[in-house]
Amino acid sequence: MDEMTPKQRLLASIKGEKTDRVPFSPFLAYYFDYLPEDVRAKGDRRYLEEMGADPLFRGAGCAYGVQRKNCSSSERYADGKRYVTFSTPKGDFYAEYTYAPAANTWFITKHPIEDEDGLMLLKAFYEDVEIVSNVKGLNRAYADLGENGLMLPIMGTDCKSSFQGMIETWVGTENLAYLCEDCPDTIKEVLEVMYSKSRMTAEMSAQSDADAFISWEDSSTTNVSPQLYNEYIAPEISDWCKILGNSGKVYVQHACGHVKDLLLPMAAQGICAVESVSPPPTGNVTMEQTAAILPQNVAVIGGIEPVQMLNSPLDELLEYAKKLIKMNKNRGFVLSNSDSCPPYVEYEKFTALAKLVKEFN
């Protein structure tokens, strides 16, 4: 078949359609931040193009903005910590973050919602949310990229499903499990408000020119059981998939952790691809198991575990990549390192993988 553009190749791959070859699109999270300043100044698109990759921009842009009229948040910094105050007409709640220089990341060390009263403050915070359109802005960015790559704009009020936002940002894994048992009606009451706002992000996304979307679900049984996932997360994402599907668009789910027991529930939602599938030790499922569990109409993006990308000798990495391509020949597949890329991965590995997918078919 004729040579495809990077956009055509990536979009066809995640939809499970025929392509001229397997695309290679590394995930440069963390890695890119450690490159020399003059390289970063040229942008990640230039960097991906020069190595010969197919540029896939995960979470780039969005079709909406999030505003609040009567609620606000403020920050202060002290002794390597960031303190965030969320203010509502009904009261305030607080979060604490600690900076980890080695990871260049702020990690939450105190979740702001602790009990049922806190949940009602969270409800008030989301009742005040106004979702405003940025469809025109996204359309301009999408047109500017053209055929040179594929944007996967973000979705969700918090760039993820509402319950996953509770897990990561608002309540925390352990406490949320207790609150689901102690006050399930209140949990559902708050989530109903959060769902209504996130649905608006899907509706605005569907109005845009973008073809595929993503959310930073970080799906993993290290922080949510299959039971809770099916009860609280799957219905919301299924709704997103239906809204997008009615406009001829598709949804990609970022799932970088222990996903073995979540693959089938995710597939049942109507997603078109799972992004950042990670073998052990980051994940808990091999690529062989992933291929056996997932229906063939669900594409896979990833396959190369971050530590493997860093430590494997080049010849072993290339042989493994060939194995992945053969293994996924009957489904949509984008070769990539999963979830993130450790700093100091040799540039030669990227260029060699980009060359491999062009020559190995």
Q: Any idea of the CATH topology of the largest domain?
A: TIM Barrel
Which outline best applies? Answer: globular
Return the average pLDDT rounded to an integer: 96
Mind telling me which CATH architecture of the largest domain this is? Alpha-Beta Barrel
Structure, described:
This protein is 43% helix and 20% strand. The protein folds into 2 domains: 296 residues, TIM Barrel (Alpha-Beta Barrel); 44 residues. A 5-stranded parallel sheet has the order 9-10-11-12-13, sandwiched between helices. α4 packs parallel to α8 and α8 runs parallel beside α9. The longest helix has 23 residues. β3 and β4 form a beta hairpin. The protein has 361 residues and is α/β, with parallel strands linked by helices. It has 14 helices and 13 strands.
Write the layout of secondary structure elements.
Blueprint: H1 6-14, H2 37-42, H3 44-51, E1 56-58, E2 64-68, E3 72-78, E4 81-88, E5 91-100, E6 105-110, H4 116-127, E7 129-133, H5 135-145, E8 150-152, H6 162-170, H7 173-182, H8 184-206, E9 212-215, H9 226-245, E10 250-254, H10 263-268, E11 273-277, H11 287-293, E12 299-304, H12 306-311, H13 314-327, E13 333-337, H14 347-359
Parallel strand pairs: 1-8, 9-10, 10-11, 11-12, 12-13
Antiparallel strand pairs: 2-7, 3-4, 4-5, 5-6
Helix pairs in contact: 4-8, 8-9, 13-14
Summarize the structure.
By secondary structure, the protein is α/β, with parallel strands linked by helices. The protein contains 14 helices and 13 strands. The protein folds into two domains: 6-69 and 128-359, TIM Barrel, CATH 3.20.20; 70-113.
